[in-house]
């Protein structure tokens, strides 16, 4: 019984964790703000008070020296306050109280509190004589003010709202991901029925065993790809080492013996250079095709004409390898919309590969339906063993020793032809498959859209 797909309303997003996390973060930020502000005030309050005290002492002593008694000093201060004249006292952040030398409160004159609460009284001296006293009563610091508490609470609430919304959004994204994962893994229930219980059938949830099974498959694939990558690097080094060694040997001998190269040696070097150039060209083309950066230039062309041209091209090789016949089966002009150059390359690889292993004939069959074109290239060679088929389109795979021995005496190549064919077919949004029966033959089948716009 297949699992039903879960609805987005089946699972509710857990909010308690987000709420608790947001509250904890908000409380931490609010307390941190309060603590930092209080610490800054403590570090700056004492120097500020000392500066204000020195400034006040200097100003009051100067006024007393100028006017000679406190009555005129107080009159000056009253006039400045009423007329809002700028004085150094305007910069004092606290409340000022002044007493005469006889300990009488002279400022402010209307104060009923003769002994205000604040800092200690400071002595006013002029020419080493006591002329009076003053006291600065500074307002409560910001750390003890309710404004800081209110601001910290507001700041904490803001952090709470922002963090809660962000956590909710993250939870919703995770829930959506789980829904998509559940939808995608639901078909696994058919392949892993042992992991599906009655509870999972009713709830529509994918069990962890099924997810673990799929993750194991992905891990195996990654391991296989990494193995292929390492093997590919080794194969490339091997393929380059041989021609480079031949060229170096020939050139070293020529330079050491001071003997010019004859035509045979020059031809040998040219063959090795051609092998290296083809290898690098194939690797570059395969890399571009796999990354999707290989450009295509599609046009309408006749597939029948291209196949006839290639049959004539391979006819001489087919005759020399034992009179192998190449036939075409199919009616019509076979017109398709594709990159003609790339498609010619596909057919050259498939027909050349079939001739390499055929005993007596190679048959090319072409058929059309409403939107697809099918091309099958069949040889009557010894075929491939079943365990070979999954590796046919891998880089540098050349088949088993038996198959290489059955290649009509020709080289099996570098193992890049079929991987390139696969990538070119997929660039045209087509598919390629291979079927083979041992000692009967092999068939490569391509299905490709008759019309496909690569820009769409």
Automatic annotation (TrEMBL):
Its EC number is 2.7.13.3. The chain crosses the membrane at residues 20-42, 148-167. Keywords: ATP-binding, Kinase, Membrane, Nucleotide-binding, Phosphoprotein, Transferase, Transmembrane, Transmembrane helix, Two-component regulatory system. CDD domains: HATPase, HisKA. It catalyses: ATP + protein L-histidine = ADP + protein N-phospho-L-histidine. Gene3D superfamilies: 1.10.287.130, Histidine kinase-like ATPase, C-terminal domain (3.30.565.10). GO terms for molecular function: kinase activity. This is histidine kinase.
């Amino acid at each position: 019984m297949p699992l039903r797909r879960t609805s987005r309303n089946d699972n509710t997003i857990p909010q308690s964790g987000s709420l608790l996390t947001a509250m904890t973060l908000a409380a931490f930020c609010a307390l941190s703000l309060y603590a930092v502000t209080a610490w800054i005030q403590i570090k700056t309050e004492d120097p500020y008070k000392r500066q204000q005290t020195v400034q006040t002492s200097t100003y009051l002593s100067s006024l007393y020296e100028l006017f000679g008694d406190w009555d005129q000093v107080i009159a000056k201060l009253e006039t400045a306050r009423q007329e809002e004249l700028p004085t150094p006292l305007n910069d004092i952040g606290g409340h000022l109280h002044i007493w005469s030398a006889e300990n009488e409160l002279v400022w402010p004159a209307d104060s009923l509190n003769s002994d205000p609460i604040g800092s200690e009284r400071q002595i006013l001296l002029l020419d080493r004589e006591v002329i009076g006293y003053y006291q600065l009563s500074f307002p409560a610091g910001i750390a003890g003010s309710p404004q800081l508490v209110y601001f910290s609470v507001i700041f904490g609430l803001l952090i709470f709202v922002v963090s809660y919304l962000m956590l909710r959004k993250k939870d919703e994204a995770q829930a959506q991901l789980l829904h998509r994962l559940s939808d995608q893994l639901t078909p696994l229930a058919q392949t892993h029925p042992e992991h599906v219980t009655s509870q999972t059938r009713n709830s529509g949830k994918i069990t962890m065993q099924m997810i673990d099974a799929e993750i194991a498959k992905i891990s195996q694939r990654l391991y296989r790809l990494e193995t292929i990558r390492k093997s590919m690097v080794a194969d490339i080094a091997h393929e380059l080492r041989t021609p480079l060694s031949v060229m170096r040997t020939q050139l070293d001998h020529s330079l050491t013996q001071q003997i010019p190269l004859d035509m045979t040696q020059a031809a040998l070097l040219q063959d090795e250079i051609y092998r290296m150039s083809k290898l690098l060209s194939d690797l570059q083309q395969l890399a571009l095709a796999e990354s999707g950066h290989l450009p295509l230039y599609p046009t309408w062309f006749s597939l029948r004409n291209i196949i006839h041209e290639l049959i004539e091209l391979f006819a001489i090789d087919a005759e020399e390898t034992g009179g192998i016949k190449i036939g075409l089966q199919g009616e019509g002009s076979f017109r398709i919309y594709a990159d003609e150059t790339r498609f010619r390359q596909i057919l050259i690889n498939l027909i050349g590969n079939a001739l390499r292993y055929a005993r007596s004939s190679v048959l090319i069959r072409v058929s059309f339906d409403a939107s697809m074109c099918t091309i099958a290239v069949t040889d009557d060679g010894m075929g491939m063993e079943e365990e070979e088929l999954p590796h046919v389109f891998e880089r540098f795979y050349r088949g088993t020793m038996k198959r290489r021995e059955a290649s009509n005496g020709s080289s099996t190549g570098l193992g890049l032809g079929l991987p390139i064919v696969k990538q070119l077919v997929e660039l045209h949004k087509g598919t390629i498959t291979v079927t083979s029966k041992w000692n009967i033959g092999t068939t490569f089948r391509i299905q490709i859209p008759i019309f496909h716009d690569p820009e769409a």
